[in-house]
């Protein structure tokens, strides 16, 4: 199978996964919000936020393991990959133990001192907190098994496990209706069980089907030094990213209450679903992008970076644009009575993700180099500064939405900083082509789409669900048409026409 065809098949598997998981996740959120209530839903989001704030190491471990397995998979022997996989696995166990103990010690202090909670909810909050740490431990120690599945490009299996995960979570949300009290506690307990079952599936599949994932009681000291150095720089960067997201949420909790947190969690649900639309392409491209860098295949490296950046953005925009223009109706239809602040926060978070998705392939390239010092210090510190800035604004009486204006501006500044860093690290990276063929193209196409949708919103007014559906479909078709006309290159248009003709015949 050719490399490009493999990317296409992997992307298809990930989009099938996406279709199922998005529908189930969004429906689960509605059921969970109804069964827990806005306050408990917001409370769970707050506890999860505290855990995420301290568990920034999880993403660092995942990125490090992904990077080294992807780079070595193309050139290392099976026995050597087994050694580095085993080394990574034992390292994950040690780091998970260290940080989970740390979270147990300091997390309770953070919840007691910095989180605004109703007095009657403090006891159950601590129980949920302890259960969440167990879930975190299971997730961390199984990161290498998920990473090797991705490095081997077993995206079909990855999709099936993801579908199992969201199906079980939907069942859990429904089961809560049978409990009359302590629903949040039972939800947290059920969540731990689901995490255990799904992550165990990764382990069993990898052990039975991937030779490189067989555990050897061996530590490769040279690899250990490399991955610890990588993780060290990633830790600071990921702390800054998590601090931005969860720190702003905790500030919203302190200044605007649990309803604000519930609004944020709902907006993150929508964003996660839509971000997956674009990130699926990047995830499918990632193994080959990293290997093209390792093989010094500059042309393919640039090509994969440019096209994954541009088309990932357009995939997301196809759905984001109509949703943003119809957000009021969608939230009311989905949730009945959405919490305050949800509409505005959702729009800002989606805009931030649209910016982020363009530059995600740039971050993958920086990871491929393994040289993270400049990336971590400069980008991480810039991201970190957003939280104290939001705190100052809130102290001076600024409204809640200023937090997410800062959120968007910070994302844009960090993204352009990463563009400068990757050019410094990889001199063969074609910056001028990225600016011209990706960014300028995206700005022109997006401007035309915004103008067209504003015209539709102004002159086409239909009522009820059928009216909404008609407008949403019309807007989606307009977005697709403008992307096809302005955003897609001629050579790719020919490929699309050829593909459609072959399917019609």
From TrEMBL:
Q: Does the keyword Protein biosynthesis apply?
A: no
Keyword check for Ion transport = no
Q: Where are the transmembrane segments?
A: 12-29, 41-63, 84-112, 124-145, 157-179, 185-205, 226-245, 311-335, 341-363, 375-394, 400-422, 434-453, 465-487
- InterPro entries in the record: Poly_Biosynth_Transport
Location of the protein in the cell: Cell membrane
Sorted alphabetically, the keyword list is: Cell membrane, Membrane, Transmembrane, Transmembrane helix
Q: Which organism is it from?
A: Acinetobacter tibetensis
What GO cellular component entries does it have?
plasma membrane
PANTHER family associated with the record: PSMA PROTEIN, PST FAMILY PREDICTED COLANIC ACID TRANSPORTER
Q: What is the protein name given in its UniProt record? A: MATE family efflux transporter
Lineage, please?
A: Bacteria, Pseudomonadati, Pseudomonadota, Gammaproteobacteria, Moraxellales
Superkingdom of origin organism: Bacteria
Task: Report how it sits in the membrane.
Answer: Multi-pass membrane protein
């Amino acid at each position: 199978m050719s490399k490009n065809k493999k990317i296409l098949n992997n992307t298809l598997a990930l989009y099938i996964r996406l279709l199922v998981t998005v529908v189930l996740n969004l429906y689960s959120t509605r059921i969970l919000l109804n069964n827990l209530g806005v306050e408990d839903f917001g409370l769970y989001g707050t506890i999860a936020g505290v855990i995420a704030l301290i568990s920034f190491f999880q993403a660092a471990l995942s990125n490090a393991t992904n990077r080294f397995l992807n780079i070595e998979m193309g050139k290392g022997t099976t026995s050597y990959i087994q050694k580095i996989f085993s080394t990574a696995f034992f390292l994950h166990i040690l780091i998970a133990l260290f940080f989970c103990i740390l979270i147990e010690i300091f997390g309770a202090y953070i919840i007691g001192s910095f989180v605004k909670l109703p007095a009657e909810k403090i006891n159950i909050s601590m129980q949920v907190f302890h259960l969440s740490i167990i879930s975190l431990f299971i997730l961390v120690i199984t990161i290498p098994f998920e990473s090797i599945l991705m490095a081997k490009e077993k995206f079909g299996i990855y999709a099936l496990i993801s579908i199992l995960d969201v199906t079980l979570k939907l069942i859990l949300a429904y089961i809560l209706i049978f409990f009359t009290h302590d629903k949040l506690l039972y939800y947290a307990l059920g969540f731990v069980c689901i995490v255990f079952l799904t992550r165990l599936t990764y382990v069993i599949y990898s052990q039975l089907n991937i030779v490189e994932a067989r555990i050897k009681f061996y530590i490769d000291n040279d690899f250990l030094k490399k991955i610890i150095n990588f993780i060290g720089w990633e830790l600071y960067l990921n702390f800054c990213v998590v601090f931005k997201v969860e720190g702003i949420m905790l500030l919203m909790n302190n200044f605007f209450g649990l309803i604000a947190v519930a609004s944020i969690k709902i907006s993150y649900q929508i964003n996660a679903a839509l971000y997956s639309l674009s990130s699926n392409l990047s995830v499918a491209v990632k193994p080959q992008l990293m290997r093209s860098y390792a093989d010094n295949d500059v042309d393919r490296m640039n090509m994969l970076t440019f096209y994954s950046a541009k088309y990932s953005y357009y995939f997301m925009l196809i759905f984001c644009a109509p949703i943003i223009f119809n957000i009021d109706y969608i939230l009311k239809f989905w949730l009945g009575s959405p919490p305050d602040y949800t509409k505005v926060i959702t729009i800002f978070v989606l805009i931030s993700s649209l910016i982020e998705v363009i530059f995600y392939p740039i971050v993958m390239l920086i990871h491929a180099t393994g040289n993270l010092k400049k990336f971590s210090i400069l980008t991480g510190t810039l991201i970190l500064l957003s939280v104290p800035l939001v705190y100052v604004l809130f102290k001076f009486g600024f409204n809640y939405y200023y937090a997410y204006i800062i959120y968007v501006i910070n994302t844009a500044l960090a993204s352009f900083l990463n563009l400068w860093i990757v050019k410094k690290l990889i001199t063969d990276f074609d910056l001028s082509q990225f600016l011209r063929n990706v960014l300028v193209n995206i700005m022109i196409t997006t401007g035309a789409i915004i103008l067209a949708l504003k015209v539709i919103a102004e002159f086409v007014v239909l009522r009820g669900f059928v009216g909404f559906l008609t407008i949403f479909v019309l807007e989606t078709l307009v977005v697709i048409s403008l992307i096809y006309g302005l955003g897609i290159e001629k050579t790719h248009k020919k490929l699309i026409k050829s593909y459609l003709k072959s399917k019609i015949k």
